[in-house]
Amino acid sequence: MEEEWFAVAAFGEEAEARLLAGRLETEGIEARLYPEFQGSYYGEAVNQPFRVLVPAHRVLEARAVLARIEAE
CB of 63 within 8 A of CB of 5? Predict the structure, then answer.
């Protein structure tokens, strides 16, 4: 059975989402971006937020990391 993933944050810029995902990975929390890529042949065409996803059982830990970042 595949594990469920939940969004803990959303960003308008891919770079911001990747920064948070990297920080979560540093803290030992697996993270993914959704969508992984919004580009097209002509450049970035889709205007959706990039969501940072974590496994369901790590959501509370990820939110705690995000709270620490926001407090800095």
Answer: no
